Structures are given as structure tokens and as C-alpha cells.
Amino acid sequence: MRREALKDMVSKETWQRCLSRLKKQETVEVLHKLFDYIVDILADRISQIKTADSRSISFFSEGREFLTINVTRKDLRIYIHPKAKAFFDPKVKFDVERFRFWDGSYHKASGKYRAMSVWISEKKDLPGVKKIIACIPKTKEA
User: Fold this and answer.
1) Does residue 142 register a pLDDT over 60?
2) Order of strands across the sheet with 56-61?
3) Distance between CA 110 and CA 141 in Å, rounded?
4) Secondary structure E strands in the chain
5) pTM for this one?
6) Nearest-5° angle of CA 80, CA 2, CA 139?
7) 35-54, pLDDT tens digit by residue?
8) C-alpha 92: how far from its chain's center?
9) Where are the beta strands (DSSP E) in 18-83?
10) 69 to each of 31, 50, 99, how far by Cα in Å?
């Protein structure tokens, strides 16, 4: 789907509500940059973007949620679901505020995890979360 069409799936009103929840201007900027990055690199994968009140932005591929950004008052929590088809090496440390692999997503054959949660709030966290998101296959066929 075209990037602009994807970006239009989140209304201006929804953006305003999300942004009003965040206490720090820096986190507002991080949310915009993160959203744009996700849409830019995963455009071929994303079929739909849904929002829930002012609390989350969820990305879907073929009807299945694979990535969610939760907006809290102090930070952004990114959930990469197993449906994202990503693999995360437990030995790799990501330069973000905090991250946690989902225990139930451990893939025995590869020794890697298929899902994780990430917390970010500052611009310095963006390279780390981009590295994490880059693990998600860019196309639906992957």
C-alpha cells in the first residue's frame, strides 16, 4: 500500500489525542519519527493501521496484528508480536530504554525469540528501536 495512504489511516484527531497524553515534547517527536519509520520500511507488509482511543496504534498484515505502539503518559511501549515473523537473538543487547523478550515466543530450533516488548521515550532510543524493527521481514511472503 502507498505510504501516504497508510499514514492517512490515523486521523488528525487521533494524533491529537495521542500527543496530548504524552508529557514530554521529546516523546511526541519520537512517536512521529517512529511511526514514519515503521510505515516507510514496512509499507509493503502493512495492510491496515488501527487505533484504539488515544492509547495505541496497531499495524496489521493480512488481518493479523504484528506490531503495536502503546502511548502512555511517560513513554512509548512497542510490542512486536509473533505474527511479525521476526527472530531476536537473546545474546544481542538493544540500545533502548528497556526491552523484554516474551518467554512464550522462544523458538527452540533457532534458539531465538519471536516476540518482544520495547520501551522508549527519548531520541537516543530511536537507533536501537529501528534496529529491532529492522528484524521484521519487509514483505508478507517472508
Assistant:
1) no
2) 48-52, 56-61, 64-71, 76-80, 116-120, 98-101
3) 20
4) 48-52, 56-61, 64-71, 76-80, 98-101, 106-107, 112-113, 116-120
5) 0.92
6) 45
7) 999 999 999 999 999 998 77
8) 18
9) 48-52, 56-61, 64-71, 76-80
10) 9, 11, 14
Pairing of strands 76-80, 98-101: unpaired
Residues in the chain: 142
Model confidence band, residue 1 (pLDDT cutoffs 50, 70, 90): low
Distance CA 83, CA 42 (A): 14
pLDDT the model gives residue 16: 86
Residue type at position 53:
D
Radius of gyration of the chain (CA): 14
Residues 93 and 90: their CA atoms lie apart, in Å, by 8
pLDDT, residue 137, reads 94
